Amino acid sequence: MSHATPGTPDRVHLDNGGRAPWHPLARQAFEQALADGWADPRRLHAEGRRAARLVDGAREAVGAVLGARTQEIHFTPGHTASLHAAVASAAAARRRAGSVIVTSAVERSALLHAARAAGKQGSVPVDRLGRVDADAMVAAVRVPGAALAALQHANGEVGTLQPVGTVHDTARAAGVPLLVDAGASVGHVAVPETWDLLAADPADWGGPAGVGVLAVRQRVRTAPVGPEDEDPWAPGGVSVPLAFAAAVALQAVEADRVAQDARRRELVDRIRAEVSRIPDVEVVGDPRGRLPHVATFSFLYVDGEALVTELDRHGFAVGSGSACTASTLEPSHVLAAMGVLTHGNVRIALDRGTTADEVDRFCAVLPGAVARVREMLGVGGL
Amino acid sequence: MSHATPGTPDRVHLDNGGRAPWHPLARQAFEQALADGWADPRRLHAEGRRAARLVDGAREAVGAVLGARTQEIHFTPGHTASLHAAVASAAAARRRAGSVIVTSAVERSALLHAARAAGKQGSVPVDRLGRVDADAMVAAVRVPGAALAALQHANGEVGTLQPVGTVHDTARAAGVPLLVDAGASVGHVAVPETWDLLAADPADWGGPAGVGVLAVRQRVRTAPVGPEDEDPWAPGGVSVPLAFAAAVALQAVEADRVAQDARRRELVDRIRAEVSRIPDVEVVGDPRGRLPHVATFSFLYVDGEALVTELDRHGFAVGSGSACTASTLEPSHVLAAMGVLTHGNVRIALDRGTTADEVDRFCAVLPGAVARVREMLGVGGL
């Protein structure tokens, strides 16, 4: 989808992972819910009950997509809050069984941080495609003292799908709950059934930021860590209009998910093929078992930040796993764990509105941009 | 402000504390920011930088109202998150000095919970009007081992203003930072200068829920407790449109705050006078040093929940500090700490749009509603 700025009508936004533009139906839903559901849903009066009905409808809609019961769906203040609450709460409930939290090495840093805060963290390595070593993870889950296992459904940085089914089989047999971070996958690929707790991110599927989704199977024991008189998953409550907009957006993207999968998968294949012709590049992530809309690659002799800026000058917005944010200059821990190039990294996440023409234009501009950045760094001849 | 529901054109919503309808300018600002600022403000490309400029503008606007520098203003996922982060972070930074967190007994339960989680909690009593014993609080702050003091600017349940200036003088002299929860007061009364950390709640002043404001003086040492590569006050980031709408709403309500103070103060005086004529009632909170828009009273021989429901049937939405929420059946810890009636409680928070006619209609309906509930409970003759 092209987001026209005054004077730059041809902007192409290819950085839609984790923060995509709102789906048009989400905006409509938000407006409606703001009129009908601005009140506090915990109140007993008509306005409160109306807001509560909107939340319940939103929970039901999200549950239908996630394969969960309405009462298993909770809204949280955001995806990071979901991961923190899930790890802290599930670990606290299993304190007698142990305090080791088994994770892959490529989970989100928020989850890894929550795991370290809640117990001893057992980190399982990944292969060069970013896929966790299922045998090692299974073995780690079986070790007495495991309180919780956490494995993402797909890695949002490189797109690789993880063997959550295999790990869940073992975890269930061992009595260890499995938390699946599906923040990069829900809305893009089918949701797995193999989880005990599952976190999903509305801001990634075309819903709003400022609200998260956490599904907790009824059989899972949790020990909420907040005040007793608060919703344990959202102390202080959530914004009803945001929750409602998130649910409507999810229904909308789920309705044409299969068509979008085929369409975007082909565009990503095209990007991967074109990029691989550029000298000294490593195309990253599993070429097959992957998200349909994510493409990631790293260039030798290129600074990621400089390449993002150069592409931005030419009208293309992309992400980068190397010094991609203002808040950190550290290279991506995901790329480091995979043993691939951690610098000169570019990450593409196609929107549902991204066109073939936009992808072709990007592929046409990229080689020149890489060459210019290499020239600036004095490695043009390489 | 009357919120018309189909079939109920005469609804009067008097439960605007903590979750007020959006100010009309907040809706406009949200729409604009959603178009210009949907991207992740941590990104380096044009869309990200544009979103970051909106956040910075919002921080500057909020800082101007709170009497703080732009860089001292942080957006959080919500007011509860602000209180949790402020307590945890300020306490962690002062661990060497001590671990006692001095609070009043009538702070929000989220703050009391955070204080218990972060250290030993020293709770200071309040008088029958809900005002903290300033001498006792000053003495508690001076005791070696105090890591942090927390005192609300005003109590949102009963409206009583607290002596934050006196407590801050002592706290500064003792080197103990003071956290002021101004979640019930910002937008309604002048913001005090006497704080080291100050939390304010957009959902209370006509901005959105789903975003909070935390101001931290630059001199205050903090030890953020989240992942290093995240915004310590908002891991995962905040919604830019919500933050922008919150700031615009604050500017708007601040612009006519003084006029609204006089207007609503008179209406609350009227309510307090009318209510006090009903038999067996206790009008709660400081009649002078109080928020302009809050009125609270407790009825003997009345169940609060039943009275909320009875008033709702007659078109009036009010809050209650006794079993007022679906999540708890406990009486309000605020009313209990004040030593006043904890049951049969009704809480009014006037919106900026509440009219004198609506207040008069409420005052006309209330005595009958109380009598009917007492009849239902078999105490009609009392």
What can you tell me about this protein's structure?
Two copies of one chain form a homodimer. Chain A is α/β, with parallel strands linked by helices. Chain A has two domains: 12-22 and 257-376, Aspartate Aminotransferase, domain 1 (Alpha-Beta Complex); 24-255, Type I PLP-dependent aspartate aminotransferase-like (Major domain) (Aspartate Aminotransferase, domain 2), CATH 3.40.640. In chain A, 41% of the residues lie in helices and 13% in strands. Chain A has twelve helices and twelve strands. In chain A, strands 2-8-7-6-5-3-4 form a seven-stranded mixed beta sheet, with helices on both faces. In chain A, strands 9-10-12 form a three-stranded antiparallel beta sheet. A two-stranded parallel sheet of chain A has the order 1-11. In chain A, helix 6 (164-174) links the parallel strand 5 (146-150) and strand 6. Chain A is globular, with a radius of gyration of 21 Å. Chain A starts with 11 loop residues before the first strand and ends in a 6-residue tail after the last helix. The relative contact order of chain A is 0.16. At the A-B interface, helix 2, helix 3, helix 4, helix 8 and helix 10 of A face helix 2, helix 3, helix 4, helix 9 and strand 11 of B.
